[in-house]
Design brief:
heterodimer; A: about 375 residues; mainly alpha; ABC transporter involved in vitamin B12 uptake, BtuC; two-stranded antiparallel ribbon; disordered N terminus; B: about 270 residues; alpha/beta; Rossmann fold; four-stranded antiparallel sheet; 9 helices; about 30% helix
Chain lengths: ~375, ~270
């Protein structure tokens, strides 16, 4: 069943024609830089806060935890406790959420073939916010303090699937239809959210508003334990479809011509996006623009190939959110700034710049 | 690997484009699809590629109706060069050609990837563009890179939608001689072409399509006749034999003097 070309090819194409190498060296350098940055930022961030702990003592504490008697333990009596009860869970959450949001963004841009796509497009964030608001206003208590997170997760997932189901016609989904359906469903979810804010008392309103602003304050290890497996599944799934995502850049039709089941790929990718984003926002609230900005920056550095883009985005997202959270909790003394506010403050102008740049090609939508 | 259309009719957006077309493409043939604008050439090619399902009649590859083929299995049997070359991100030309190897991923043929990609890029004269970002290439360079991608796919059936539209004469001849070589190697090749002289020079067989119907089907010398072409295109043509090659020359439309709407210069 094979065509006749291979035999001829092996006979005539000799080693004289060297194909350009993959961008391996740059990618390796990027992974090394990001990895080192993550380790250093973790140790630095852990030492910062109301109770300052020198980096050497943070290092010593980590070493003791993994059973190595190296370095000096924190000298402050509460030092070790603060690190392991408060700071490290929060750092771990920042890393996991950052990786999740960036991976979701990379997936989203891949399946839309558009660098401006963001997980918010298919309604994950608004759906999650609405569900969280319902819990807060009606004081629903199914599984204790976990209820808000669980509802937010389900809300995000369900909204995404509704958007996808509504935009399907004749067994296929056009990208533009998906985006416009997303706008419609987002609007309904936003109306529901507004209703909840209207119905809620002052305290509930405050809670809803701050949930929407996003924060990693009060993260516990149990939260990290719940979010991490979900994000791990999303990351592995994203890696597995990396090569097929590349081919999607040819457009739906041409991708199908080279054997990609575009519809199935898109469905799986959207489920992964919903999983990653919903898991991230369920405990952290809405943290905008990370998923938009990070994959774009990585693409500028190492090109659009998803086999590098996806893991590099995950790593860079982790570093970025860890840095953003460090600023959020240390910029103003005795106050915890909403991290979503910080990312939007930087992400908004960046998005605008991106729009200006791509507008040259096709009205910003290409 | 024979591609067979039997009494195929097809509609797009409620408008019937193809009427009762029967056609068979066999290995070893380069078939040119020609015809006036809106004749249904691209739709016919879409039926052949499995993108458009006939509203009646049947399109089969190797005896199996196209809709029953698995997407991946079909991609190992037929490759398609689209009329428009678009790419969402700034992949390099060599990455685009590599995408043609996607159907062979995780199979033994995957080991040949580098060799096949290099050879395909050499044959289409794009090896020097390998490092360039695809969206920055010129129209003709994009078309040749995409043609290399189609070659790299190594399929018995190759469908080309206006492969020479953006090409200069050197690259036009190069692409069509590659298409001929594919046919000579036992592939079944279909190309939508606009230039009748070019079609006559390269094709083993020419199918003339007009108004969604197959109007003529046969070797160039039988089909390229002034009466057939004149009627199909609604414009008189001369068919000249130039040292054994057929040249099709449309009659010039001469406007009567002083009737021009544009003001004369001077």
């Amino acid at each position: 069943m094979t065509a006749t070309l291979p035999d001829r090819a092996s006979a005539t194409a000799d080693a004289t024609v060297a194909l350009p190498r993959h961008r391996g060296a740059r990618a390796t350098a990027l992974f090394v830089v990001l990895g080192v940055a993550l380790v250093f930022l973790t140790i630095y961030a852990a030492g910062r806060g109301q109770l300052a702990i020198p980096a050497s003592e943070v290092w010593g504490s980590i070493m003791h935890r993994i059973g190595l008697d190296r370095g000096t333990m924190p000298t402050h009596p509460q030092g070790d406790n603060t690190l392991w009860q408060v700071r490290f869970p929060r750092i771990a959450m920042a890393v996991v959420v950052g990786a999740a949001l960036s991976t979701a963004g990379a997936l989203m841009q891949g399946i839309f073939g558009n660098p401006l796509a963001e997980p918010g497009v298919v309604g994950v964030s608004t759906g999650a916010a609405f569900a969280a608001a319902v819990v807060i206003v009606f004081e629903i208590n199914v599984i204790g303090t976990w209820t808000t997170a669980a509802f937010a997760f389900v809300g995000g997932l369900v909204t995404t699937l509704v958007v996808y189901a509504l935009s399907r016609a004749d067994g296929r989904t056009e990208v533009v239809t998906l985006v416009l359906t997303g706008i419609a469903v987002n609007a309904v979810a936003a109306a529901g959210l507004a209703l909840m804010i209207f119905l809620g008392d002052t305290q509930a309103r405050e809670q809803i508003v701050f949930w929407q602003l996003g924060s990693l304050n009060g993260t516990r290890w149990e939260h990290v334990g719940v979010v991490t497996p979900l994000v791990a599944v999303g990351l592995v799934g994203a890696m597995l479809m990396a090569r097929r995502l590349d081919v999607l850049a040819l457009g739906d039709r041409a991708a199908r011509h080279v054997g990609i089941d575009v519809e199935r790929l898109r469905l799986v990718a959207i489920v992964l996006v919903a999983l990653l984003t919903a898991a991230a926002v369920s405990f952290a609230g809405i943290i905008a623009f990370v998923g938009l900005v990070v994959p774009h920056l990585i693409r500028m550095l190492v090109g659009p190939g998803h086999r590098v883009l996806v893991p590099a985005s995950a790593l860079a997202g982790a570093v970025l959110l860890l840095g953003a959270d460090l600023i959020a909790r240390t910029a103003v003394a005795y106050a915890d700034l909403p991290i979503g506010m910080l990312t939007s403050l930087v992400g908004g102008p960046f998005f605008f710049w991106l729009l200006r740049r791509t507008r040259k090609t096709a009205g910003g939508w290409a | 690997m024979t591609l067979r259309l039997t009494n195929v009719s097809a509609s797009l957006g409620g408008h019937q484009i193809l009427h009762d077309v029967s056609l068979e493409v066999v290995p070893g043939q380069l078939v040119a699809l020609v015809g006036p604008n809106g004749a249904g050439k691209t739709t016919l090619l879409s039926v052949m590629s499995g993108d458009v399902v006939p509203s009646s009649g049947e399109a089969t590859l190797d005896g199996v109706p196209l809709p029953r083929w698995k997407i991946a299995a079909l991609a190992r049997q037929r490759a398609v060069l689209p009329q428009e070359q678009r790419l969402a991100f700034g992949f390099r030309a060599v990455d685009v050609v590599r995408m043609g190897r996607a159907p062979w991923a995780r199979r033994s043929e995957e080991d040949l990837d580098d060799v096949v990609v290099a050879e395909a890029m050499q044959r289409t004269d794009v090896i020097d563009l390998a490092e360039r970002s695809f969206p920055t290439l010129s129209g003709g360079e994009k078309a040749r890179t995409s043609f290399a991608r189609v070659l790299a796919q190594q399929t018995p059936v190759v469908l080309l939608d206006e492969p020479t539209a953006a090409l200069d004469i050197r690259h036009q001849e190069q692409v069509l001689s590659e298409a001929r070589r594919l046919a000579a190697d036992g592939h079944a090749v279909v190309a939508v072409l606009h230039d009748l002289t070019v079609a006559a020079a390269h094709a083993d067989r020419i199918c003339v399509l007009a108004g969604g119907r197959l109007r003529a089907d046969g070797p160039p010398r039988e089909v390229m006749r002034p009466d057939v072409l004149g009627e199909v295109y609604g414009h008189p043509v001369d068919v000249i034999d130039h040292e054994g090659r057929i040249v099709v020359l449309p009659h010039r439309i001469d406007h009567p003097e002083e009737s021009s709407c544009a003001p004369a210069l001077s």
